[in-house]
Amino acid sequence: MRYSRSFIYTLKEEQKEATIVSHNLLLRGGFMVKLASGIYNYLPLGLKVIKKVSQIVREEMDRAGAIEILMAAIQPAELWKESGRWHEYGKELLRIKDRGGRDFVFGPTHEEVVTDIVRKFIKGYKQLPVNLYQIQTKFRDELRPRFGLMRGREFIMKDAYSFDKDEQGMDLSYQKMRDAYNNIFRRCGLNFRSVEADTGSIGGKDSEEFMVLSKTGEDEIVVCDRCDYASNVERATSITEDEPGEEMELKKVATPGKETISDVCEFLGADPKFSAKALVYRNDEGNYFCFFVEGDDELNLIKAMRATGSIEIEMVSDEELENLGLEKGYIGPVNFPNRDVKVLCDYRITKRNNLVVGANEHGFHLVGAKYGRDFECELADLRMVKEGEICPKCKKGRLKKMRGIEVGHIFKLGQKYSKAMNAVFLDENGRAVPFYMGCYGIGIGRTAQAAIEQNHDEFGIIWPISIAPFEIEIVSLDTRSEEIRNYCDSLYELFEKEGLDVLYDDRDERAGVKLNDMDLIGIPIRVIVGKKSFEEGKVELSLRRDRNKEKIDKNSVLDRVKELRDKLYRELEEVRR
Ligand code: ATP
Ligand code: MG
């Protein structure tokens, strides 16, 4: 493509709306332009990247035996009522009405629609397994759209859905997708890890997320420094050292004005490990819960939701606390005062022989409290694991925390949707059995942007060649010289004829402007034609990633460029960890 006839407009200024580098670079590089909060237009450069990521995804999906379809974006509410999600999905679901007042949604995901398709056509076990996928625009009315394509409201997703006749089949389909995902993200040049993930409120069997490692990731993950254990903190567990402490008598002590657990412990000279703090929440159904975790532990909200079967939970206000008859700052599990509030304790609390807890009386705490002797309640894993704790898998290594960007998610759904929607096939014995399903998502735009987050420098983007908008850029630094112009024109034509993916900066612009744009846009292989070298019969070749220049005879550019291109692709074949 000739730059002069393209639609590429770069921006000099930092973009205020962007708080992470990849978002800023996508805007400045003219890859996209914002239309509304979380909604973007893709410009030619952005679209090319989207197409390249999509193509890699397609190739790997096809290779794994999945079949491409394209489902409707607008879906009738009836299907969502059948699955039960019309009521469960919450505010992220964009609900719309047609002129007849009928309810529809703009699809945030397609389990219902694909299940409806499959139940129409698949009648018997011999037609299974089947895996259908699509690449399509989704809409989720995210609470906080941000970071550009990372968390948009309108975004492009690849979603695949597998249907099997039994659990073993489902496990195999899942495994195939897992392998395909590893290939996809490796081919996109990403440094990633797959981690165990939370299976959501209804709970499926297995689930893994593919995380691109990056400081700006919204997810926190833990990895073992010895084995392959890796998990989203949402569900991570650990082995913690036992330290029961001495058994003591339960005693009430005055702790006037000491309302935070750290203040109380300091005042009493107690180790916060030997204390229990209370956190009171209300869920989507209006039920109240009081969670107790150790004083220096953090409540893991996802675990708290799972333990209580909640879809959403929210911390209660001071006023609500008062109405519940709970003394802020002095809430404790011994003689808990309100039977309508369900009490749950983290397991770790049961291991201590003496704890500082609230006395449920203003200005007082209890010391020496012991689970089983002084109080009892439902127990659950409620705590956030901490760095340095022991790996639950190999039981030797230590856990390390990192941040990640979730680019893909695979999930064994089991019969959740097929049962709810009565999607069945006849098995070998003529019995109607609901399908065993799996679902597998990849954020196309998020993947592209995650690649920038991992590959950039102070001058701009450094695209992995596989998903770069172009593989090669020719820059002519002297457009006034007819000789140089002719040479560049014919080099460009030669490249095009050879099927190379090339951008030719033929603009009548200053060299500085062109070189800056070239660094910003980040095309991996560059051919720079400047007056001085040209007079010596040479042009300059360089890679965006190191910007080291090599001078090449102006007649052997094609071969060298092809060599570099092949080398860059070969590098992506080597597994990165
Ligand atoms: P998140 O936890 O980030 O909100 P999710 O778990 O809701 O994502 P899935 O339903 O698993 O997302 O969607 C599959 C994939 O789609 C995700 O792995 C991610 O790459 C992408 N995705 C999800 N939400 C968005 C969004 N708002 N903007 C861009 N991509 C998204
Ligand atoms: Mg997810």
Key words describing this protein structure:
binds magnesium ion, binds adenosine-5'-triphosphate, 577 residues, 31 strands, 3 domains, nine-stranded mixed sheet, alpha+beta, BirA Bifunctional Protein, domain 2, YbaK protein, five-stranded mixed sheet, globular, Rossmann fold, single chain
Structural notes for this entry:
- With 577 residues, this protein is an alpha+beta fold.
- It folds into three domains: 3-237 and 400-453, BirA Bifunctional Protein, domain 2 (2-Layer Sandwich); 251-380, Alpha-Beta Complex (YbaK protein), CATH 3.90.960; 470-576, Anticodon-binding domain (Rossmann fold).
- Helix content is 28%, strand content 29%.
- It has 16 helices and 31 strands.
- The strands form eight sheets. Strands 3, 7, 8, 9, 10, 11, 12, 21 and 24 form a nine-stranded mixed beta sheet that branches.
- Helix 1 packs across helix 12 and helix 2 packs across helix 12.
- The longest helix is centred in the N-terminal third of the chain and has 21 residues, at 167-187.
- The model has no long low-confidence stretch (mean pLDDT 95).
- It binds adenosine-5'-triphosphate and magnesium ion (MG).
- Magnesium ion (MG) binds next to strand 21.
